[in-house]
Structures
1.
Amino acid sequence: MASQELASLLAAVYSPSTPHEQKRAAETALQQLAATREALEWALGSLGIAAAPGADLQALFFACSVAEEAVTFRWPRLEAGEQAAMRSALWRAATEPGGPHFVRQKAAAALAHVACLDWPERFPSFWPDLQSCLGDPARRSSGVDLLAATLDHFHSLAQTTSAGLKGRVLSAAVPDIQRRYLELQPVALATLCSLLQLLGPSLPAAVAAGSGNNGTLALAARTLRALRAALADANRLPEQQGISSAALVALLFEFVGAARPASAGAGNEASEQLAQVAAAALDCAADLQAKHFGAAATQQMLEVLLPKLQETCGLVQEHWARQGAALQLDDPLLTSFVRLLVQFFTMQLSNVDATPQLGVALNGLLARLLALTSARRSPVDVLLFLEVWHAVLSYLDSFEDALWEAGDDVAARQRVKQAVAGYKEPILAVSDLLLSALSPAGTAAAPFSLDALSCAPSSGAAMEDWLQSVVSGGDSGRVDEAAAERQEAADAEEDEYAEELLVPGAAQGLHGDSEYDVWVRHAEGFLGRAIGSFSADLLPAVLQRFQGAGTAFEQACQAAAAGVAQAVAAGSFAASPAAALEAWLPAFRATDICLQLLTRCGPSFPTRGAADGSAGLAPPAGSGEPVSGAHAAQCLRVTFQLAGGWLQAVQAIAGASQQQGQQQGQPATPSLAAAAAGGGGGGGLSTMLLAGSRLYKVAGSLTATWLSQLLAGLVQGSADPDAAAVAQQLVQGLLSTAATLLQAVASPQLAGWQPLLHRAAVWAAESLVSLSSIALSSALKPPPQLLEGIWLSHETQTQLLLAARASLENPALLPVRASRALWLSLSDLCLRSWPAQPAAQFDAAARGAAFADLTRPLVLTFQQAAAAGHAANGGEASLAVAAAARHAGAVAAAIVQSYAGSPKAVRGIVSSTLVGPALPSVLAILHVGPGSSGSSAGGQGPLQGKASAALLRLVAASLEVLATELGSEAVGQLLGALVQIFGAAGGDPSFESDLLMLQLVVSLLSQGGTHRHAQLLLPALSYCLSVWERASAPHAAAATDADVQHVRAAALAALLSLLCFRWKALMGGGGGGGGGSVSPATSLAQQAAAAAAAGGQAGQPDSEGSFFVTRVLQLLLEFFGGAASLAVVLPAADVRLVLEELFELQVAKRLYSLPLFQAARAHLAACLLGMLLSRLYRGAQDELGDTLFGLAAANWSEWHLTILPGVVDSRLGGVGPSERAALLAMWGGADLDAHSFERRLHTFLNDAAHYERSCSGAGRAA
């Protein structure tokens, strides 16, 4: 190989000035060159002189790549002499000192792969030479790296799961690799422990040297990382590998403790290296906590571990003292120690009994941890150690199981309670620390400031990632359940404010969490859990802080409104619209945090003493008085009072801003909205609005939890009878508070403020749902006067009804979610909340009249939208019609869905007064939708896709809940009209309505016998086919934002489902024996002619049915054929969707064995196997394998003699004859059960990938 040519190619690749095309050509040339025998000989020679001075680093890197490629892809094909030469060259490059670090690392990785394949039979010198290397001080560090790489490589290759078989080695070699890995582990562990014991005494001298690049410290860190690799197999215990777990822990903490002398004059670089060594030892100890040693071994280990953990707390404090006040988020000693503690409390402690001796030791550890939590008065430290305290609470949860197991054993229960009591003091101390920081009591100063945390929107993402990395410790094999729960909660919060639940403009105020938000959420999460465990102690503290925060909040709202008014009067409001609110930011924040805690307190509040009128909001501080039901009632009253004051302040600010806008000739609301949105979670205005909105959420939460318990006690006779008046008062207070807010939001006085108040509107409306659910509960059966009082009240009959009707006239006033909740409450109250009467006295006429009066605006909205749709020519009028129809459709669908399972008389009222009058107008609206003659230019009519989808959801809910009341004939007519509308109009350009229609068609036609709605079957099939054709059009993907691949999959799944349920109707009495066969090469016209000929004796319906069956199965082949040919890459979810319906069809009709499917069977199986061989569909691997088994089981001879050889020849054309024979031979020739088929399929896929890799490398070499 010409060195000049190589040098020019490398220069072209690595030079930043090389043109792109020239660089790509050079890279291609290097790839082709790397696989040649000449290049391998050159690479071995270059690696032999890697340590020489002045070596060309670019050439060395290419030489390493050549050697790695030969080992990975061509090792079995190399001659024995070449293998020996490579082992020798790689050994020198990996272990000889002096060479570049990347050369040693890449050579060690290649040599580890060779060892996994050849040691000890064909590479017997590997372990003796490695031990010799470890015994040589000059090469010891390289030997440790090589051992760690070998352990990692063995661990990776020994995986036997379907995901682990990636073709790196043949499947037949895996059992031998696993056996040799088990043999290597104990000797590797013993060797590393011996090396650590050798290094331990030399650490003081290394620390005293205090120089950078300290070889002893670096070697210790490398050895500990290698030890972690040796402990990676969680199924093997140290005792099974010849070493005591307790002794191993003691050895590890020798290296942790070695970091302590660094304060006695060691340099900064040596101190950092010591911290890295200690962190590596702590990581090893943390990994040990995931293993179950057995009671005796665990007890011995804990006797060593617990004192060491307390000593490490002191070490961390000394480490902080050396660092000074500076906070380092990437402090390895701190983060590794926290991870060890989390693993210890979460996993290992549950393996031993909670003895008094263990409790004493743990109390000592928790006392040291409590000191660490607040030592530096840093919110980041507190946040980090909260992960440990969460783990402590998780450990305490295990005592609940112990209490259940104790049963009636008084002594056992007492022991459990005594054990839990030992953790009470530190948990309460941490809780008090958090409460004092979040909401200081009175004039007391906070223990630490949160000002260092950023309030910038989305700044908290990095903090969340950091916390997750601390807990996981980079261990990809362990699932972090806490992180998963946090992510689930974040997703739920994101869904809560999804776009369709917001009024226009509200989305601009939603941002990702700031650092402050993340800190508060974690602190509030811990406090919520602590309240659940120690409510008697923490509830008074929460209420006392809420008492102080509520007073400050009320004053802040009044002062803020006055400040805005003064700013408007002074003319400074326009320059800084939210400046008047910033001074009250602490009061707003403190209240918001207290409210978040109160949402968790509802289940913990007692109901006893609720009628005590002398109780305040909270027990006096230091009195020891327990919380009673009176305090909970007063908490709700204060919440109502604060909500009223907040709303008045908002109205005053809105009035002042409107006044300022009138002075300037323009509205001021946009500037306020921008201030609130820009403030994210930190601005004064945004925080004020959020805290005030949360008042309504707290009111609904306490109503759904505590107030429902109080009413249950009244019904059951366990509560004070005098509490009935308190319950009536609180119900009226909640009703009045929510109604006042909703009416205000819909009023002109707050015009333009709806985007800022969307949370308040949603939470206020949902608090009404909490109220109506109590009043309607069949289990509670509250007093009749309570039921009558709610529906006949002024708030319901005037304020709520006006707000509900206003939201229909102007959908921008309330979010859809708020409107749904409001209308649900009103419909429940007017239809269900009547005095308790026997069923025989049910006055359907009176209730029906009330429900008709309520829902008449909904029906009128649909009728007006239908009339306007015929006359509209697009523009703003069309958009207004679409918005009104969408809003009303969402509301009506929610109402109808809420009556699923209700008595027949109630469902009859809903059907006759709402659904019956509304459906004709709904169909008329849909008829003038997109693509119809009434549409505007561009195919977008007055009804947009989301509005059409909302109306279809109403239809679907009606057919699901009220099918009996509507009648079979009406249901059939309705479905037929929908199919005709969507089929004639060309469907929805966004496909959103089409996806709902597909579900609706399948749902209705899958019910009842084959004769039910029989006349709709062929039109429905035609419609489903039209959806497929539109989604398959050449420009469909560019013309819409819809996922057309998913639309195709949904249409095909619907067609397969219809075939499954209506097969007999389509194929006649033959059941599929006739009708020709499906072939991928048959044209559509030929299939139609064949279907007509086959069905001629049975009449025209059968011929049409055969045509549809043939066409659907043709689409099935087209769908998977495109994926197999890599013309398109399908999402795994879409593949599973289609295969699930195909499985149902196979189970019901034995499709794979029918003559109709005979010609398609081999082609479909080849496509599915090709998809698996592409390794692009691991997410659908199980479903693809199950379908393949069904296809193969239909004709095993065809599978063994036709399908497998055809796929191997077409998909694996690069493999040689011997490899081809091996792939086919592993299947045998006999019939297989499902389990055997799955194992052989995994083996086949792995070995095929291996042969492809090897043969492609050999082909390039040739």
2.
Amino acid sequence: MNAPELPEDVGRAVDKYVAADVFNGQDERDAALPTIIVALEQHAVQLLSLVVHLEGPLNDTGNAQGRRQATMLLAECLRSASQLPLNFKHAQTFVTFFASKLADWQCVEGSLNGLLVLFEKHGPLLRPLEGSDDSPQNHVTVEVLRSIFTNVHTPSHTQPIRKATIDCVRLLLQSWSGEVKSLGATLGDGVSGIIEDERDPRNLLLCFQISKILVEDFAECVTDATLKATFETLTSYFPITFEPPKDDKWGITAEHLRTGLNQALAASPRYADLLLPLLMLNAQDDSESTITQALDLAAFCLEQYGPDVARRQLRVALNTARDEAGRGKTPSTGDFATFVLRSLTVAMQNVPPGLTPHWLSRDVDGFIKALAQGVAQAQVGAQLLLQATASAHPILLERSWSVALGVLLIEPVEGGPVTDKTLPLEALNFISNLLKLVEEDIASGRKSVAVRQLKAALANILATLRSCQSDGTYTREKEEPLACAPEPSKIGKCIELLGRLCQLVGEANSQDAFQALHLMLLLPTAPTGNDVEAWAGQWRETLSSADIDDPRAVALATAVGDVIARQPARASEAAPSLLAATEGAREVRSRLPRALPRLLACAAVSLTPNTEVTSGNDTASATSAQAQQTAGELLERAATFVRPPRDGTATPSVDNVEAIEGLAAALECSAVAPAAVALAASRLARALQLPQELPQLSAGLEAESNSSVLAVRVAAIRRLVRILSNKLPASEAASLQKQVFDSVAQACKEEVVANVMTRIALVPAALPEAAEKNWELCMEVLPGICSCITREQQSQGLEGLALEALEALVEACPKANVEGLLERLRSMFGSMLANKQVEEQGSPSLAAARGATCCWAATVAALLRRGGFASPVASFLEALLSLLDSGAPAARFIPQAFRVLLPPHFSGANNDGASAQAAAAPLSKTTLPPLALQQLSLTTLPLLVDRAKTAAADITAAASLPAATNRAALESAVALLSALPTEVACGDCGDSLRWCTLAGLARLQEDNSNSTASPAETGEKATFAVQVLQLLLRAASRSAAWVEDELHTVVAVLTGVGCKHIVPLVRLASAQALLFLVKSSHGHLVPFKKQIQAATKRLVEDRRREVRLVGVACLNAWHCGIPGG
């Protein structure tokens, strides 16, 4: 070859690279390579000269290392030199050269790397010219693949070489498909051989990809024998049980491998006859994981193969599901149900409702009948499979319904109280689930199950209910009545089904069933003495002494209310009994008095006509007028449960909250025309004397009410006012909304806490409609609302309601008025936040500063929920954070501000009293959107943590500030971390969580030593303590390594201060954290044996039951895990 010699320094570098030891000479190669690459890129050396220089090592048969290193060097030069002036001839020559070197075992890696670089970077040079008559069989890519398949035994090489082989073949298959197809069956056989015996997960993912490409795009190159060989190779990896090694840097999981295998096997329906029998065999395995994987893979493949293949395989699939799940042989019943649903859904694709395919009777009908027999024998698996079958298609829903009910029916007892067939009580839950599918089908407009079938089911359910006697006996087929005492929940389910079927069969067909329900609940106004009345009377007597949460009474009241709300004829029948019931309602433990408001309102709305009716001479007008009058009486009676009646008689003793909820539900869930609902809402408003007596709705919200009770009452009142605002005619709705704000303004002037609470609680209910119509009216109450937050003598309930009202105003503010609202808030609170003479001015100024920070945070929370106000949010947050640096007394209140912004959530809070002191917000609030939380975690959290660390490190600087200011940054950071999702807090914010948790635990010990804290300070410290323990539990549950590293600190706090804290919720959280550590890190806790035993002894003797339960669990876990001796 004619080529200039290499420069001396380049030649030395080349020789050094080639001579370097294969195993220990990587550093030498790395040092020599840059000199060569720079010379090539600067065109100081030609690639041809490099090839000539390497001719000796490349052809030296006695120097295997030299041949390997020389080939690797050429590949590295092609890869690393970005500016190589190659032409078609150069590229083709190098490809041919590397392809020929594949026959040399030592040169395989370098040759494959070189081929990859050439095809990736210089592929266009190798493509034939347009219009060329060159045969694809003679193309260089064909020769390369043929050489790989012939000379490279992929399974025998190391992982990098196997990966390079797979990468090269995949690249040629994807980019040179037209040329490589000319290989024919050789291509299929070659690819099948490459993927054989691969075990590295990195390569395995690539093997799954090229096998998928092969059978999808090169099907004509895959013979049946090759397909079978490829199938056997792929299925040898099933089931996948891969577990990533600890500290795995590749990020490959078992799910990645399963997905790759699923896609490879689903690539061609030619696999179906081989795959489905194998998977059904694996579905009978003892391992739950194997069963789940087999069923998921089978369903996925059938979905990809299409309906024709699914129908061919359906019988085998359904029979396996029936044998395994239907007969209770497997723990994976739910997986089988999902598999049946997916398989039938695919098989029924393109089958229109109402057209029964011929194969259904052959493959599916027997399956449905067998499952129905299993349902009759109370087999849970059969129930789940039949529900899945019914969900797959409307035709299957109708068949499942008719077959199942036909099998389940029991012949009536001769001479018994009922003549219709009954259903077993054990099957009612299954029928309820099936009926839910029927309801969804009817709602979609299909009505696959005919009304006659529903009528028959209604008669059967009614007969089943009639067979249940109030004395606990239950008449069954050809048996004497047995005192089997059916469970109340089963009878409740029967009543529920009866009510739902009454609605489905329509008004014309529900009279008999509704009469039974009606008489079970209410006395008849005109008794007839028939058997139904006698039977219902016994039940009515029994239920009158039942608990208010008795499932039979609850189901009965719900069923009657739902039917009369949708069927005016039934409402007309029930109206006289309802009116009579209100005359004598008294305080009993039954459900009836509590259900009366909803029943009265439902009947009234159902009977209300679309327009006001005046008396007429014709029969229709007289009937409508009578219905209108009855509806008015019903509404008047319903209103007496919420406000005292006008004549001064005693109000029936009914829980006010439930009465309000009942009225709201009747208006909201009504199925009558909107005009009728509007008329009914107007009449109800008049009966409640609204809007004049609006404050009476919320009367009784004492300032010191339990926070959970307060939340329930306020939510019910707001719901009713909101629904009335939506349903009333426009003018009446406007008057109601105006009254809300007028009453708030008046109450704020009077400054009576009880009155202010009852008015402010209604503000969110009037928004956003009132803001859209009259924003100026809304702005008039803003100062009064804010003054409730900044006043000195503060009520926790009033403060929470006022903050909610403020947030509602900010969220409802019209976009054009937002800037004005924010400027108003800045002018009201800016000076309070910056005032450094607050402490000198006394406690009123301190209260104002605290209220200002809370109002500031409430504004930020509302803006974040609205979205689109990044600049104001940033400025408001900056103002809060700047307090930490300013030394202003208001800085101590920043943690409370962050708890307003991010309300703490503790499970069980306010239910058992354990968290009364720790609950920062008495009413539940809407959490911030995920995007807003992410923004706070990226921007605000680092600033808070930095300030907390600075305060902790710089004791001298901190000493000049109030003690509360020093802890403000830490408490605020903890509040923010507690509000983040666990995966975000423990992942992206893991370092901050670690520092804040450990610093918080240290603070918890410090706080416990201070016994002079006021009740308010105790509550704030308890909230902080529980949030710190929440963070600790989250980190431990995510297996954070630092938890075990810091066990000496963690255990000392949990077994010491945490288990002795005066607030029960802190003790509960400490016990939960200790229990988790005992379960997950028992061996590491042995050095702390004495502390843990003392702590568990203290926990099991705690005065709170919840703490004792966790303490017992912790004690058991500790002793069960201690090594013997």
3.
Amino acid sequence: MYWPIGTPRIYATTTARASTKPNLLVSHDGVASSAATDTGSLLSIDSIPSRVLDEKDTGTHDTATPFTPGLKTPATPAVNSVEHDIYHDESGYGSQQYLAGSGGGNIPVGEPIVALKVSRTGHLFAGITATSMTIWQTKPTVIQAVIVRSEASIKSFGTNVALLLRPDSVIFVVQTSLGYLITYSLATDAESRVYKPRFSDHTNIQRRRQSHFGGPGNSAPDQVLLGPGEGVGVRDISVRFRRVIKVDAGIECALALDDELVVATKTPAAVQCIRWTPDSTGSQTSTELVSRMGWLEKKTSIIEMTHDRPMNLSTWITSDGKAYAVQRLAASKIRDSADFDPKKLFKGYCFHSPPGEDDYAVKAVVNARFSLIAVGCADGSIRVYSARDYAGNIPPSHTHKAPVTPQTSGALTTLTYSPDGYCLFAGYENGWATWSVFGKSASQSFHANPDITSTNMEDWLAGITDACWIGGACEILLVSRQNEAIWLLEMARSAVTGCYSPPNLFRTVLQTSSSVMVYRGYDLPDLTSISAEPFLWHTARIPENYLLNQWPIKCTVVSADGRYVAVAGRRGLAHYSVNSSRWKTFANEVTENEFQVRGGMCWYQHILVAAVEANRSYELRLYSREAALDSSTVMFTQQMPAPIVLITPSGEDSLLVYTYDNLLYHFVFAPVSGAIRPIQVGQIAFHGIVRSPARVRGLSWILPESQMIDGDPSQDVAFASVLFLVDGKLVLLQPSLNHEGQLKYDMRVISHNVEYYASMRDQSAVNMFGESSTSFSVETDEGMLRNSLWVFEGHELKLWPDVQEVLRATSNDSTKDLPPTVSIQFDFYPLSVLLGKGIVLGVESDLVQRRDISFSFFRFSIRTHLFLPEILRFQLVVNNSAGALRLAQQYSNLEYFAHGLEILLHHVLDEEVDSAPKPEAALLPRVLSLLSSFKQYLDIVVRCTRKTEVRSWRTLFAYLPPPQELFEESLQRGSLKTAGGYLLILHTFEEIGAASEQSVRLFSRAIREEDWELCKELARFLAAMDESGETLREAMQLVNIRVKQDSDDTDIMTRLEVPSRRSNGTASRLARQQSSEGSSGAQSTSDLSSFGTPSPI
């Protein structure tokens, strides 16, 4: 659901020349500086040297290096607020200095970035080189601080090798090559700003019209130059050196958590926990040896650690290639347990045990949204496990395979999930790749042209060492090998990732950092809707005045008819009319910031329903598209007792609202006093059924047909079967009555590894059958797909043609097998099902490299797949020929319907030629019987023979009438091109002579109807029968036609040249050759349907 778009922006601390910064901070990291320049004389009058020292270092100029024997770490003093630790040293020998002027303090030029980290909130990120650290603000993307370590510090502690960032972004920890941890603290003034633009006269600034722009514009003069998310300006920060920690045992890796710093040591192998502040007993450190951890292998060390805060779960990778899921044991719980051991700090389980060296774990990352753990292996593959509980139940889920060989990709270097969990990014030594959460390949850079990449110096395509998501996953930061630049690549993603709603599933909407793109091919002719032309996308740029302070966009939703789109960012919302291309935003900034959308949005006709949180209250708000956005124009506000997980429309006028207290509310839209209001008519409690409401991604229900037509809406909750999408599991809950007559629900997981599902009953509610294919009837139940249930499981799209069969199979019997599904494979990511057009719509990413431009860029194109052949085949396999016929008849008016039947015939024929099934088990006769019900039957058979080998023809015509009969029938229908195809088959089967009666009849008919293209093909065919041309001459004599022209009346034979070519020896070789020529020939005007129509494949 994620695709890169455009070309990345490039950010770097330095350019090709040395850069001198007046506020550059040179840090000696506690080491006394002997540099003559580090004196008070370098300081300006307003710049006072600041020194932040350890408690034991206060008052001394020779700062001793803190060290600890063995595994013990010194009692690190508490890291207090910066304002309380400023120390003024008149001598100028402090731990750090601000340098002014140009007399030194140059930032190192050309040093490659070693590591990159982003804060938990995403408002800043930091990168380190071997000797410096740079702190960036995300929006605007500017440098806030640069810390360059002095030569004395480098000599004493070594170069930078890793960067750690405490989740609250207050403390930065730099790991060095000599086994030291250098800590820095950051303080921010919430009110102070730097680089504020000022304009003496800004009254003449041109602005877009309010009707299109969506608001009064950027009226403030200091906001004219700002872009999305840059309304806060550039914050003023202060960075101070805190302390150096030496670990004599050596550092394998480290982890910065909220309460402590976790360090894995080398010799001996152990894990040290250093608290940021001492506990109640005054203790600040604790250690546990690896050899004493019974759940870890002996004589191993920990080489990689990651932690996921939402799941409170860590992953450890050991030197023997195994991966462990680890939790920190809380001290209070340890004391209460029977087997209390104060030395036990961690508890873990091995979930990845490699069978060989290629399967050794090298990277691991946790996906909390889907409860997954991805493990990157030495061979470049990524094995994903499902974390079902905290007791070690972590079975394998699926595997992501690299799109190229391990030799081409190189070693895996980084692994990261998008914040919403839908996309996995993997960086390799020679490129990168992305997948959807359950394994569908989305994009990759391995196919980039190395010459163009090298010429353009686009190292972001040639290898990645680190990557971090920012902006709510609308952008990703990339660090390439041996490069000082940071590349920011924009990502486009499906609107389903932010708002799981039926209209978003049935109408493809993509969302980027600053715009939304709506696919508008639903109401266009069939052949137009399946093209890949860019005009099929309606692109709307989100108003700058909304993006200024509310970036990034978190939620996007389209209306059922595709006329309206709504977006919501950090706070407030905005909506857009596709027909008028006009946005509406809040004119009052205070009103816009008063609430935030939490729980999603949906449209009911022209009314936008938003689940919002405002002043700690939870509401459903209704906004009219016709009215201006303001607190006074809210149509209706429905108070909710708990936060809303999601809202989804159902049926024609129903709204389902699921809340964090595990209640599902059913509302019905109805006019009250002349205005539309949601009226609650029922609710369902799922206590004890759904364990974690926050893990529910999607929701819908299925009502019996009788209840939908004649039933009381207040009783819908008693009859509805509810579908929950929890993590990657699709759960079906069916109502029944217990022995006491009370309502209960029987639960059954009907599908795993589900990225999304779509019930076509919801699609009928979204009014998707008003497409150009008028033959599609909603009222037709039997044999139709309006009751189908579609599930995308990462690698394939599965569907049950009738969801009622699923309900019957799961009712009152949890052990009964589910009915079989239709499986559809894709080489692109499917986004929506256009049921009336018989296609699945998707998007494919493409890397464009051209020699006439100096940069590469990504673009995505529309891809479609005709699903009709797979479903028809499924029906024929289960001997439901009547159902297959009814289904095919519903799609018979599609312009590419014949092509779909041809695909069905071609696939079945290819399989049965190789497998040679028994006649009673063969599927081919059923397919041909189905095809014979349609007028395109003869054309489909001929086109199929043109695209298959001659050896397949015998198998095909074993179940068909003789080719002679098909030839005669084609002539009777006037399909001369089709008759020509059967003539070729007759010659191949050697059932007729060279200049046969059939050839003469067809030639004469073609000349009489002035089908000169067919005449040319017949002449070429007859001339190729022998090199002397006797066959053609004999045929022309039999035809005995003279073509009269104005200037010359000559026999047609005088205008034909007999081709000089060698005899091909056998009729079969001639037939194959002529078949190849005929397939590329021009289309006959006598039978337009004899050639294939453009394919949606």
